[in-house]
Amino acid sequence: MAFYSRVSGSVGMITLQNPPVNALSAAVRQGIVDAMHRALSEPEVKSVVICGQNGKFCGGADIGEFGAKMTGPPLVPMVHLIEAASKPVVAAIEGIALGGGLELALSCHYRIAHSKARLGFPEVALGLLPGAGGTQRLPRLIGVPASLDLITTGRQVTAAEARQLGIVDEVTDLNAVDAAVKFAQSVADKSLDARRISTYPCPRPPDLDTIFERAMQQVRRSARGAIAPGTCVQAVHAAVTLPYAKGMERERELFSVLFNSGQARALQYYFFAQRAVSRWSTASGARWDTSKPRPVHKAAVIGLGTMGRGITVSLAQAGFSVVAVETQEKQLSEAKQAVSGMLERGAKRRGVPLAHDKIKYSCSVQAVADVDLVIEAVFEDMALKKTIFQQLSAICKPGALLCTNTSGLDIDELASQTQSPELVVGMHFFAPAHVMQLLEVVYGPRSSPEAVATAMQMGKKMGKVSVAVGNCRGFVGNRMLKLYLEQAFFLLEEGATPEQVDQVLEEFGFPMGVFKVSDLSGLDIGWKVRKADGLVSPAFTGTSARIRGGSRYSPLGDLLCEQGRFGQKTGKGWYQYDKPGGRVAKPDPWLFGFLEDYRAQHGLVARRIDHQEVLERCLYPLINEGFQILQDGIAAGPEDIDVIYVLGYGWPRHRGGPMFYASQVGLDKVVERLEHYQQIHPDVPGLQPCRLLRKLAAISNPAIHKWREVIQKPRSQL
Ligand SMILES: CCC/C=C/C(=O)SCCNC(=O)CCNC(=O)[C@H](O)C(C)(C)COP(=O)([O-])OP(=O)([O-])OC[C@H]1O[C@@H](n2cnc3c(N)ncnc32)[C@H](O)[C@@H]1OP(=O)([O-])[O-]
């Protein structure tokens, strides 16, 4: 709701009250409209201030209401009522003015912001555009280029930048509401003719066409199939080319296209999914709201390779004291230099002080004796990790949490090396660890709820989105990825090329196709793992070359590695590069010959594989594995999987994540297509729909937020 009061006799105060962010729900909109009418009708009231309760002006439209039938007064007439008011209306912006919140502020005649406030139009990230006049008012106020920047990127600005751009009239370090009241009194008798933004002419820079062309090119490049950014450009274009009223009509049309699109639904689902993962639960019933994290002041990182360096930087930037351990002198000094560089660049980019003094370097594991939490980040070698965990268990103070940064090794096996297995959890960072937002927090069967809560909270403090997942080979992300990679290899055997597969996946919205990503990460990494798993051996020849454990196996990746083709680092992989370390992938005629020889050798006849098959073969087995993961209780809900895939694996956000995508395709359709491919390729693993997927498909594709009710049941039957 919105609360009306009178201050200093002549100022009507409208306070938005809808915790936590004063979103513009139906009740809030109704409250604002009622309060405005009241303020306008009271003769003693000479001016009005609009503010938000609890130091937050307004977080915009209530996203939770988007799926439901619209009730209450719409936003557009509400902002017009405010702008048309005969008494000056001043927005007192504390905390945030986002989306509809900023549109509300732009309808006011003046804006006073607190210096710590942030303002912006984040609608584009929800698959929308600022549809309450934002695309028409902002360009009239600050010009076209700056508006295009803010509206198409969703970038939030500080109060200082907002002042510079001309969005706010004053910035104060003091109480912004008090300042706004004083300001409102001072302008009570002033004419409002020059204060209604909708009446301003929209500035028309001489190079207008070039500006819009560039903006369109820019969004096409970065949007990867998302429709909202381009539609935002079109809406701003209307502000320049049409009178205000017509521009508003155009904004409404474009908003409605976006609002009713699958992309907006996916992005809004994702918005809530990213917040839902913090309310974690484990298969054994531990929960976020009943598990208390331990205090962590000092942390250690063991192993300063690429991952360890990134983790050290993340910890220091989050304000933790860090002991960084690397036993090799030379690597330690290289790491010191690299970490300093990363910290310097980070401090410059973020405009914050350097965090060098937070880190102490050491060559000895003994240096971690007094820390509260250790993150082991040596390379993926179980024997080495086991030795380190034995050492840590002996050296660390009682109660210290022992974490391993592994992308798939058994957490429980490591826990069993320690005296306190309940204090062991996995923290799977994604490279580069100081940049990537995702953290898989992996609990083993013996990890205590307190340990999981501590790791989840550490991730949050490091600016990550932490997702709690159970212990299994590859956890959630890499376990599903295995199926995706396998299918891509099989498609090559059957006649596809790396370029064809990658093109289909990039058109779907991945920033890079599977083969380009493999070349970037290094083909030798998977090869090492497969060798350790006994999947690579000269003994596999003849008919056994393409069979492992009774299932079809593609040795293509192994054969490439045997040729020294490790990807970008060697200048050759699934593609060729101009030099080792080169970045631009070019099709490699050698590879075509290699694939032809391979097929001939194994009696495979290349066939034409269409776009649909490439997409379905790559995505549906991955999705099916996601359902198996839910069935096994490794992930608590579809949101966990979707957040992992969007933040860690480049799944296009506007498609919500693999589980959301499946819900949109239709689970019955996913089952039907998997069965279809299974029939044609009975030897291909991963094509058999799992029990949970079949069950959900059979109960007529329930909405994704209802899946959890069904998921509990198959689990209890395991
Ligand atoms: C014609 C219409 C045109 C207008 C369109 C729009 O305005 S579109 C909207 C444009 N506006 C946006 O896109 C702003 C979206 N919001 C944000 O960017 C951030 O939430 C924040 C910066 C406001 C606060 O960040 P923070 O890290 O301090 O906190 P946090 O992120 O954890 O959120 C806390 C809780 O608040 C909830 N919630 C938040 N906002 C909304 C909302 N608008 N609605 C409903 N709920 C919302 C959030 O779900 C969470 O709930 P939970 O999980 O506790 O039950």
From TrEMBL:
Assembly information from the UniProt record: Monomer.
Keywords for the protein's UniProt record, in alphabetical order: Fatty acid metabolism, Isomerase, Lipid metabolism, Lyase, Multifunctional enzyme, NAD, Oxidoreductase, Peroxisome
One Pfam family it belongs to: 3HCDH
Primary location class: other
UniProt name for this protein: Peroxisomal bifunctional enzyme
Residue stretches making up the 3-hydroxyacyl-CoA dehydrogenase C-terminal domain: 474-577, 614-698
Pathway: Lipid metabolism; fatty acid beta-oxidation
Domain 3-hydroxyacyl-CoA dehydrogenase NAD binding: 298-471
GO MF assignments: (3S)-3-hydroxyacyl-CoA dehydrogenase (NAD+) activity; delta(3)-delta(2)-enoyl-CoA isomerase activity; enoyl-CoA hydratase activity; NAD+ binding
Record GO biological process: fatty acid beta-oxidation
Cellular component annotations (GO), alphabetically ordered: peroxisome
Keyword Cell wall biogenesis/degradation: no
E.C. number(s) listed in UniProt: 1.1.1.35, 4.2.1.17, 5.3.3.8
